[in-house]
Amino acid sequence: MGQKEKQQEMSMLVQAWASSGLSQKDFCKSEKINLNTFRYWVGKAKRSKKEDLTSESAFIPVSPSANSQSGSALISIFYANGVEVRLPSAADWTILQRLIQLQ
């Protein structure tokens, strides 16, 4: 069995375990899988899922609300490193574009 096939098989087993309601130990007994090997694959699946979430862009459409006409509304930009930048909604859009660019 090649590496890719092994990954697919283990991924399917991790998904089956997650929906089974069994403990890892009981699931491994029923499937005749080494518990430590299975724990490795569960951890690998969790890390992979976390990486997928952080690597995706999280842009959402923005449209001004009726309350933002007063000029006191703010636009917030949250960066992955935890930095938040706030601008007045009336700010120049070219500034906003520069702040959003991921370079």
Shape: elongated
Task: Write out the strand line-up for the largest beta sheet, numbering strands in chain order.
Answer: 1-2
Mean pLDDT: 78
Total tally of structural domains: 2
Secondary-structure-based class equals mainly alpha
Tally of DSSP helical segments: 4
| Distance from first to last alpha carbon | 41 Å
**Strand residues, percent:** 5-15%
- Specify the oligomeric state: single chain
Stretches where pLDDT falls below 50 for ≥5 residues? none
Provide an overview of this structure.
The chain has helices at residues 3-20, 24-31, 35-55, 93-100, and strands spanning 74-78, 84-88. A two-stranded antiparallel sheet has the order 1-2. The model has no long low-confidence stretch (mean pLDDT 78). Strand 1 (74-78) and strand 2 (84-88) form a beta hairpin. Helix 1 packs across helix 3 (35-55). The chain contains four helices and two strands.
